[in-house]
Amino acid sequence: MGPHPAVAAIRLAVRRVLHDVLNENSAPHTAPHDAPRATTPLVLVACSGGADSMALASALAFEAPKLGVRAGGVTVDHGLQPGSDLRAADVVARLAALRLDPVESAAVRVGRDGGPEAAARDARYAALDAAADRHGAAAILLGHTRDDQAETVLLGLARGSGIRSLSGMAATSGVGGRYRRPFLQLDRQTARTACMAQSLPVWDDPHNADPAYTRSRLRHEGLPALEKALGKGVVEALARTAQLSRDDADALDTWAAQAEAAVRDPAGLLECAKLYALPPAVRRRVLRRAAIEAGAPAGSLFARHIEEVDRLITGWRGQGEINLPGRVVAQRQGGRLVIRQG
């Protein structure tokens, strides 16, 4: 008798990602026979102790040895709740019980930039990046599910920040494709059921039910209201929208990258007339790329900023310079658009 269907589903999802990691880290076929073999890749799982990440950790622990992959785990202690250090130690013990090695807890200090959720996320990814660098990990697995993807799409829609926000989370992201999300095609209940079928203890973070957090309100109030009004299948439809939006956004980004060289003069300045001739979606991408190159932080550069810069092209009436995040300014001078540090 095989494993429970939910267990089989999470293991298959992880197996596919591990095959990708192995293929990407395999030694060239043209290597000499006496050349040393490539080091066995290490894959880490980011685990909070919740159902999603515990299901992911168990699947990694099961699949990695069969494929000759080393598997470890990291939990991040955000220090936002009393006893968070004890909780992190408990997660480390659970990961070790699954025979993951290395396992560790990383304590971080959460700042205030961008709000509590964004600050916690930034601190978490910084800690995960540091752990991957320290251990030489080829990849870090994240337990985001299809439900998380649907929430991300709705949050992007609410911000009105364009098709890239609607594309949600990528299955592969980070420098060199470091972060992998095997569960984006699986729902949250599948992960929880897999934990129950394997008698894995899980921890439900009280922040996930705290209405003070936007994502929590969306999860417990917004999505249920949408399903009540529109019927079942909203989550699946939103996840599908994310993939379609990502494909469109990638194509437009490629177009913008190719168009950018053609709209610059010999001195490298952007020519307003040539920018005006571009489709708006492409032109705004060129402007965003130029602002980031000038020093504007990508995470702080919103659609409203780019719209203001775009008006220097499409609605020119002699207006002054536009202030952008990162002390970057944009202004029109003699038919050229100058974006620079202020």
UniProtKB/TrEMBL annotation:
Keyword Secreted: no
Annotated EC: 6.3.4.19
Reactions this protein catalyses: cytidine(34) in tRNA(Ile2) + L-lysine + ATP = lysidine(34) in tRNA(Ile2) + AMP + diphosphate + H(+)
Location, primary (coarse class): cytoplasm
Residues noted as binding ATP in the record, renumbered to the chain: S48, G49, G50, A51, D52, S53
A matching Pfam family: TilS
Keywords for the protein's UniProt record, in alphabetical order: ATP-binding, Cytoplasm, Ligase, Nucleotide-binding, tRNA processing
GO molecular function: ATP binding; tRNA(Ile)-lysidine synthase activity
Span of domain tRNA(Ile)-lysidine synthase substrate-binding: 270-337
Gene Ontology process terms (BP): tRNA modification
Subcellular location: Cytoplasm
Domain of life assignment: Bacteria
Chain ranges of the tRNA(Ile)-lysidine/2-thiocytidine synthase N-terminal domain: 43-221
Any single Gene Ontology cellular-component annotation: cytoplasm
Function of the molecule: Ligates lysine onto the cytidine present at position 34 of the AUA codon-specific tRNA(Ile) that contains the anticodon CAU, in an ATP-dependent manner. Cytidine is converted to lysidine, thus changing the amino acid specificity of the tRNA from methionine to isoleucine.
Family note: Belongs to the tRNA(Ile)-lysidine synthase family.
Protein name: tRNA(Ile)-lysidine synthase
Chain's gene name: tilS
